[in-house]
Amino acid sequence: MSKEKVSQFVDDVLNKDNLSAETNFKSVMSDKVGDVLEKQREIIAKTIVTNHVPTTEEDDDTDV
After folding, report:
1. Is 2 left (phi over 0), alpha (psi -120 to 50) or beta?
2. How far, rounded to the nearest angstrom, does the alpha carbon of residue 13 sit from its chain's CA centroid?
3. What is the CA angle 54-38-18, rounded to 5?
4. What secondary structure letter does DSSP report for 63?
5. How many angstroms separate the CA atoms of 62 and 52, rounded?
6. Which of 32, 34, 38, 55 is least enclosed by beta carbons within 10 angstroms?
């Protein structure tokens, strides 16, 4: 999340520029949610790699 975006949002609210404030708010929230999702993806990826249990294939006893 960019400090500039948050600062611009606050300035827009204080200046009662509601349309710009809405746009900046959506942008800030989108960035924040995206950052959290990326961190969770990394955690899940590491968990999958470190806790991977290889599956064993059973041998077929049938003759071809």
Report:
1. beta
2. 27
3. 160
4. -
5. 30
6. 55
**What SS3 class is residue 17?**
coil
13-17, 18-22, 45-49: segment of lowest average pLDDT: 45-49
Which distant-in-sequence residues (6+ apart) come within 8 Å of 1 by Cβ? 28, 31, 32, 35
Tell me the C-alpha to C-alpha distance, in Å, between residue 7 and each of 10, 13, 15, 62: 5, 10, 12, 71
What would the two tokens of residue 39 be? 């961190």
The full DSSP string for 33-61 is HHHHHHHHHHHHHHHHHHT--PPPPPPP-
Q: At what angle do helices 3-14 and 18-50 cross, to 10 degrees?
A: 150
